[in-house]
Amino acid sequence: MSNFKESQLFANNLVVGQSFEGCPTEIGDDKFKGFAHLTGDNHPIHYNDEYAATSRYGRRLAHGLLIVSMSALGATPMSQRLEDSMVAFLEQSSKFLKPVFVGDTLKSIFEVAEVTEKSDGETAFVRLNIRQINQHDEVVAKGHHCYLLKNSTSEK
């Protein structure tokens, strides 16, 4: 018998086709500027309203890596549950379908695409397909994240 903690999301608690919806998160100006600076992307379209107004987008374009990071652990109620059960974060991919701007609100939708138990019986490979949806219910990005997660039987 496992002592399943509600905060944890074990691999063998996941079912292919199961989905999770994250909380809507606004791409705030402070978070955005800090992230663009951190990654060394200092193009004025990311921080200068006057420059952005001359672009075909008309508003400041949000930083792609920030959007990807929001689709990962921080922008979903799964965050702590995944973090507590993760053995390794293996890979991610994202494809942007529409531009995303500072001030937009995004939510992530995760769908379990694959769960493959490893030979050790204690872990499993998990692939989650991810879509990000803006406040107009448009899909702006899609991709996947792959994790190595514990199985609940590995907890004592």
From TrEMBL:
So which domain of life are we looking at?
Bacteria
**The protein, known as:** MaoC-like domain-containing protein
Coiled-coil spans are: none
Under the heading Pfam families, the entry gives:
MaoC_dehydratas (PF01575)
Q: What SUPFAM superfamilies does the annotation carry?
A: Thioesterase/thiol ester dehydrase-isomerase (SSF54637)
Q: Where is the MaoC-like domain?
A: 23-119
Q: Which organism is it from?
A: Sneathiella litorea
Q: Which InterPro entries does the entry link to?
A: HotDog_dom_sf (IPR029069), MaoC-like_dom (IPR002539), MCH/BMMD (IPR052342)
